[in-house]
Write a structure and sequence with these properties.
Layout (H helix, E strand, L loop, with lengths): L2 E7 L11 H9 L5 E8 L20 E5 L5 H8 L17 H12 L10 H14 L4 E6 L5 H11 L2 E6 L16 H17 L2 E4 L2 H8 L7 E2 L22 E6 L9 H10 L5 E6 L5 H8 L6 E4 L4 H9 L3 E5 L12 H9 L3 E4 L5 H9 L2 E4 L4 H11 L9 H6 L4 H13 L4
Parallel strand pairs: 1-2, 1-4, 2-3, 4-5, 5-6, 6-7, 8-9, 8-11, 9-10, 11-12, 12-13
């Protein structure tokens, strides 16, 4: 008889972006390990990125239940002057107008732990029904949004059900909190909520060793590290998108917020513009400062911007690049940060240029996998030299068998999660 696990997740197809990939892939492979996943998600979410193509990846026999939510994004959008659909949960909220600054303050100090907490009104009751009707053995809550964890907390207290709290990102220590206009009262309340979750969950899952170390400073306990990864099935039949233009093609796939705008990288490109034939493509949403900087450096002829692409096309573009760029936000306490796209970069076999802490987790992965070079975010000379060195690399030809057995394969990572689900609570 299969174990049954309830997975409560805000992000689910048609949501796009890296947040949805983790549990979409776990749900795909858990049945291979004698576990039946049941999904609880949102009926009327606010997804800043949508990718309807991911709906095709939902296993046909999986049960998905949805409940409505109440979210304040209409109010915030009115104050900030943005459209409701454009509001992002991790946006750096430093506005340039009084109206946007008011919206930023409200977002940082009123919506605690986050602006998605309205989902709890309906999600808690439906979760209880699902536990009783499906004989659920375990519940997994995954955040952000971290308000989702309170679904697990309530079920754990009421039914003594086993609860695994999964953290794709930090909570109170997440990097964008450093630039939000938060009051001391808001910070204290947020940290109190965080401690209650970390203390009461049967297991806490994190995506990196450094993230576990940071959480231990808040609550001393055991933490399980299950990283993100890549799905070997996603690369089957990939035909890299070829371009007719000559030169070395460098691509960044994914969003770039204000703190990740790669100024030193672009200045290094400016230095090399007469020495190397370079082409740069940023694919995804970018902060307005990035195209402005390109204009100031007069790089418009070699730097192009493209909107967010469906997951399959994004993978094709990864596999068709000469170098893949990874820009980690230039803020404090970011060494633990491993963007989800790093693993898909690894799956592509293309060399990676990472901008960020050279002693951080992402840089360590690059070194261990011999997959590229890490440079400090503002080290213009180092970035310039790295570009010259990477220009001579051809990348790897990766077989399907290699991807399937890779330690960052979604199959192998699901096996680790399955072992945790099957384990008895100490």
């Amino acid at each position: 008889m299969k174990a049954k696990v309830l997975i409560a997740t805000y992000y689910w197809p048609p949501s796009g972006g890296p947040g949805v990939q983790r549990y979409l892939k776990f749900a795909r492979y858990l049945p291979d390990f004698d576990i039946e996943p049941v999904i609880l998600t949102v009926k009327n979410p606010t997804y800043p990125i949508q990718d309807p193509t991911l709906e095709k990846e939902i296993p046909k026999n999986i049960k998905v239940y949805k409940t409505r939510t109440i979210e304040p994004f209409g109010l915030y959008a009115g104050l900030s002057g943005e459209k409701k659909e454009s509001i992002k949960p991790t946006i750096e909220l430093e506005g340039e107008t009084v109206r946007s600054n008011i919206g930023s303050w409200i977002r940082a100090n009123v919506f605690i732990p986050d602006a998605r907490a309205g989902w709890l009104i309906t999600a808690r009751k439906r979760a209880e029904d699902l536990v009783k009707n499906h004989q659920i053995d375990t519940i997994i809550t995954t955040g952000p949004p971290h308000s989702v964890h309170f679904i697990g907390k309530q079920l754990r207290q009421k039914y003594d059900i086993r609860w695994l709290a999964d953290f794709r990102d930090p909570w109170s220590q997440v990097y964008y909190n450093q630039i939000l206009p938060r009051t001391a009262v808001a910070e204290q309340l947020d940290e109190k909520m965080e401690r209650s979750i970390l203390t009461q969950a049967d297991e806490v899952i994190v995506v990196s060793r450094s993230q576990a170390e940071d959480f231990r400073k808040i609550v001393e306990r055991g933490y399980r590290v299950i990283t993100n990864g890549f799905d070997p099935a996603d690369y089957r039949g990939i035909i890299p998108q070829e371009t007719s233009s000559p030169g070395l093609l460098i691509r960044h796939i994914g969003n770039i917020g204000e703190a990740a705008v790669p100024e030193a990288f672009l200045k290094a490109v400016h230095e090399l513009r007469d020495e190397m034939d370079l082409r740069i493509e940023f694919i995804g949403d970018v902060h307005p400062k990035l195209p402005k900087l390109v204009g100031q450096l007069k790089l418009q002829h070699i730097v192009a911007f493209e909107e967010y692409q469906p997951h399959r096309i994004a993978l094709e573009k990864m596999c068709g690049a000469d170098i893949l760029l990874l820009s980690i936000p230039d803020v404090e306490n970011i060494k633990h940060h491993i963007p989800g796209k790093l693993f898909e970069y690894l799956g592509s076999g293309r060399p990676v240029l990472m901008l960020g802490p050279v002693d951080g987790d992402s840089a360590e992965i690059l070194r261990e996998e011999k997959a590229g070079t890490a440079c400090e975010f503002n080290n213009q000379a180092g970035i310039r030299d790295a570009l010259k060195a990477l220009a001579g690399q051809n990348g790897k030809t990766i077989s399907e068998e290699y991807r399937t057995n890779h330690r960052y394969s979604r199959v192998k990572l699901t096996e680790k999660l399955a072992q945790l689900i099957h384990a008895k609570t100490p």
